[in-house]
Write the structure tokens for this entry.
Amino acid sequence: MDDYVLVLNAGSSSLKFSVYGRPAGTGWRLESRGQIEGIGTAPQFSAKDSNGVVLGKTKLDAAVRDARTALESLAGWLAGRYQGGRVLGVGHRVVHGGAKFAGPTIVTPQVLGELRELIPLAPLHQPYNLAAIDAVAERLPDVPQVACFDTSFHRGQPAVAELVPLPKHIRDTGVQRYGFHGLSYEYIASVLPESAPEIANGRVLVAHLGSGASLCAMKDRRSVDSSFGFTAVDGLCMGTRPGSVDPGVILYLFQNLGLSAKEVETILYKKSGLLAISGISNDMRDLLGSAEPPARLAVDYFVYRVAKEIGALSAVLGGLDGLVFTAGIGENSAEVRRRICAASAWLGIELDAGANERNGPRISRAGSRVSAWVIPTNEELMIARHTGRLLGLI
Ligand code: AMP
């Protein structure tokens, strides 16, 4: 086995991984990907190769209860599968790089300290991302690590796009619009010249529609605005997050319903959005397959919010040249794409129904003033590329 780069995406109860081998001369080659889920409850390991062939699926000992023990378990599997291969570097998805980290960075003790200061800005993700970095540093102290941020791609936006118009002493604590899903948008921006050359240097909206959902407005493949703001609750309706709500509603929850901050957090991150509207599921497949009125309303609201945001961000761009769909819903649901494009027909999007059913890549008609596309995202490959570049491996 060749030497490889390991990509980690650590959450509160899961550790997702991808292994990229480096073939001579060309790009990164996916060797395997998988995850340890149910960390702390019923841990389970699964892995597949690049063709989707299952390489392993096993229940793990209950002792796998945190990043350190999960990494130990993963390291055991990697050592068995990739005998003789060295880990050249580890690239991490880190949700928050704050205002400072406008690109990926090699992890040093000082960088780690600065990233810890951002924990209050992303308390449900950042601590777990950093725990994985700590765990690797403990187990493989000589292996370099790279932190790749979901916020970086959005740095450099105009001041008005980043502004949260609250008193200065509050803004000075870091309250601004950051934007997320940046690794996904950066990947799409990187493949646009090849996948959709006629819009690559124009005004493009990318709709990352998955269990988390957002839109990014790009000019010349750079982010100028996005629907996510200070946190990943803002903007579009998501699986369990509401997207934008009047801040007065949040005050009402505290002042009139007497909810605690923890209860409000749980409602905003885990109990709202498609799940709350439908009362059935946060999974778009279940909702599209249901005839229940609340499930239909959930899909209607999802489409309505995306179309409304497409209008708003088209105004930011001063017009639109192309619309790109990506992530779980964006890549797989012809029905949702059809409805969003129909609601956006006024912008000049004319859908090619057959191409849409085939999942693209181009799903608009030849004469459509605004073209529409389906381009699969690949955040892990983006992390592998950054890691390889920063560590001088390519
Ligand atoms: P992601 O977070 O990008 O993995 O996307 C996950 C979401 O994609 C799931 O919650 C599903 O709702 C959605 N999804 C995946 N496949 C389909 C499909 N064929 N039709 C509709 N939604 C889908």
